[in-house]
């Protein structure tokens, strides 16, 4: 059933892309499309290896000399023996230098002089070339250069010192097949006789939980039955101030939702984040079957709800995983989000949902109250209002709908679809919380704000900031 849903979702997404891009070579387009998806999934897996290697262990002991680099759209390896072109081991077309599914070699694009000698057939599994040198600016948990001694609150020993501990030596060793299968195919678990745990909660605990879960994006996506299963499986855990709830490098056991209190996160000893009531943490190690990416410390006395690894993977992973994959690639290219770390982008991806509009549909209407913020995934829109008439057109990677949310004002313009438009929307609650540093960029770009000398000279139009157009 779930597998069927997965296939349907994949094909629907492909169909959307085909309609919006209208490629001239449909087979090449589909091949590129699925190659890009595969590459993205495999990047996730290889980033696990990257983190583990930095901590001194090799998740794939039979694979030596693997050189992993993170660049823009994914991870490219100098040698990537376990992940080859889906066209087979002896694929004559795999030695090319084409990273862009929509670039040279893609439908309609001109053949360049540097392109694959094999000509017609391209894929995205380049195993012998470097990708463009575009570095990620994320806090990299495995980057030893970010270690600044301990910046935990006044401590270098005790629970905080553990933040730099190594991954348990046997963790994930010799598990290449199961790691990749588990990380890449959450659906694999569905067939055995697993039963979710039940923790006999009191009715007041249940009531507290429903309230807490209502504001958690991961749970908002679940259907009624799955929500019930999760509620039954959650167990309460309390941590007194300064307790290390999760240690960077450890194996993942639980996913946590904060009921009360504040949790701080440290990567290689430096504080990177803080979360409060209703937020969740500890999902990365469970999703990617990787070592814990950060140390989580109770900044106050904390009450959490803990969900065991298996239940998390069975119930929550599938939707979350697919959603992240779907949006992460897109969000990476949205200029206004460049200041977000990859963790922040993942959180944002969890909270987005897709809406589709046809030519002439008004996505937001001048004067109405604003509830959502939008990114354009594909298609184009026109912005107009009574005062100025047509203001501008927006296309892929542009955003709109921020003014009403930033200023608590009615919509300042109507945004209408000019063709088949796919948008990713973010509700009011997630807007402030998940856009983090990007909110400041949105504020400084507000076209209705009085213009100072600096911002007047800085930009042409606020929404014309998509990176790749
Ligand atoms: N900047 C960050 N990088 C990595 N993990 C973070 C960060 N901020 C918060 N976390 C959370 O810290 C958790 C540590 O365990 P996990 O790696 O399972 O999942 C991680 C995230 O949920
Ligand atoms: N010059 C402009 N005036 C008003 N809205 C604009 C302008 N340019 C782009 N927009 C977008 O149109 C959106 C309409 O809804 P909001 O007012 O919430 O947010 C607005 C902006 O995102």
Automatic annotation (TrEMBL):
Basic and acidic residues bias (residue ranges): 90-102
Annotated residues for binding of 3',5'-cyclic AMP 2: 402, 411
GO CC annotation, single: cytosol
Biased composition (Low complexity): 142-159
A GO term, aspect molecular function: kinase activity
Biased composition (Polar residues): 455-469
PROSITE patterns tied to this protein: CNMP_BINDING_1, CNMP_BINDING_2, CNMP_BINDING_3
Keyword Plastid: no
InterPro entries per record: cAMP-dep_PK_reg_su-like (IPR050503), cAMP_dep_PK_reg_su (IPR012198), cAMP_dep_PK_reg_su_I/II_a/b (IPR003117), cNMP-bd_CS (IPR018488), cNMP-bd_dom (IPR000595), cNMP-bd_dom_sf (IPR018490), RmlC-like_jellyroll (IPR014710)
GO biological process terms on file: cellular response to glucose starvation; cellular response to nitrogen starvation; negative regulation of Ras protein signal transduction; positive regulation of transcription by RNA polymerase II; protein localization to bud neck; regulation of cytoplasmic mRNA processing body assembly
Record keywords: cAMP, cAMP-binding, Kinase, Nucleotide-binding, Phosphoprotein, Repeat, Transferase
Signal peptide boundaries: none
Positions bound to 3',5'-cyclic AMP 1: 283, 292
Region (Disordered): 80-159, 182-203, 444-469
The Cyclic nucleotide-binding domain, residue ranges: 218-333, 336-452
Family stated for the protein in its record: Belongs to the cAMP-dependent kinase regulatory chain family.
Subunit-level organization: Tetramer, composed of 2 regulatory (R) and 2 catalytic (C) subunits. In the presence of cAMP it dissociates into 2 active monomeric C subunits and an R dimer.
Protein name: cAMP-dependent protein kinase regulatory subunit
Organism: Suhomyces tanzawaensis NRRL Y-17324
């Amino acid at each position: 059933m779930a597998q069927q849903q997965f296939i349907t979702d994949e094909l629907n997404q492909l169909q959307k892309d085909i309609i919006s891009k209208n490629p001239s070579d449909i087979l090449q387009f589909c091949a590129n499309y699925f190659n890009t998806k595969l590459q993205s999934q495999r990047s996730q897996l290889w980033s696990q290896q990257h983190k583990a290697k930095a901590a001194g262990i090799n998740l794939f002991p039979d694979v030596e000399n693997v050189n992993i680099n993170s660049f823009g759209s994914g991870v490219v390896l100098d040698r990537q023996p376990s992940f080859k072109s889906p066209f087979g081991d002896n694929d004559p077309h795999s030695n090319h230098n084409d990273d862009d599914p929509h670039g040279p070699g893609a439908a309609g694009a001109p053949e360049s002089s540097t392109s694959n000698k094999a000509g017609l057939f391209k894929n995205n599994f380049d195993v012998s070339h470097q990708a463009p040198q575009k570095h990620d600016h994320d806090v990299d948990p495995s980057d030893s250069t970010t270690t600044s001694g301990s910046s935990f609150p006044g401590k270098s020993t005790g629970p905080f010192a553990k933040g730099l501990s190594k991954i348990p030596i046997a963790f994930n060793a010799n598990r290449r097949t199961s790691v990749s299968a588990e990380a890449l195919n959450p659906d694999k678990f569905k067939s055995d006789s697993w039963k979710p745990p039940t923790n006999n909660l009191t009715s007041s605990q249940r009531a507290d939980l429903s309230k807490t879960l209502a504001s958690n994006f991961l749970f908002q996506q679940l259907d009624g039955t799955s929500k019930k299963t999760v509620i039954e499986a959650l167990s309460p855990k309390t941590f007194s101030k300064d307790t290390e709830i999760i240690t960077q490098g450890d194996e993942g056991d639980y996913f946590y939702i904060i009921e009360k209190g504040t949790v701080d996160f440290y990567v290689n000893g430096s504080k990177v984040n803080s979360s409060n009531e209703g937020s969740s943490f500890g999902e990365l190690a469970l999703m990617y079957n990787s070592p814990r990416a950060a140390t989580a410390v109770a900044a106050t006395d904390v009450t959490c709800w803990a969900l065991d690894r298996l239940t998390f993977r069975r119930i929550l992973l599938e939707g979350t995983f697919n959603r992240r994959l779907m949006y992460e690639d897109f969000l990476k290219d949205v200029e206004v989000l460049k200041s977000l770390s990859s963790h922040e982008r993942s959180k944002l991806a969890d909270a987005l949902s897709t809406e589709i509009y046809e030519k002439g549909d008004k996505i937001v209407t001048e004067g109405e109250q604003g509830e959502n913020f939008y990114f354009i995934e594909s298609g184009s829109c026109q912005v107009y209002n009574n005062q100025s008439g047509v203001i501008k057109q927006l296309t892929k990677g542009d955003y709109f709908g921020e003014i009403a949310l930033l200023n608590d004002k009615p919509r300042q313009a109507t945004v209408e679809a000019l063709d088949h438009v796919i948008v990713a929307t973010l509700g009011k609650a997630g807007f402030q919380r998940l856009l983090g540093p990007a909110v400041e960029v949105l504020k400084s770009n507000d076209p209705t704000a009085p213009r100072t000398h600096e911002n007047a000279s800085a930009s042409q139009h606020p929404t014309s900031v998509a990176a790749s157009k």
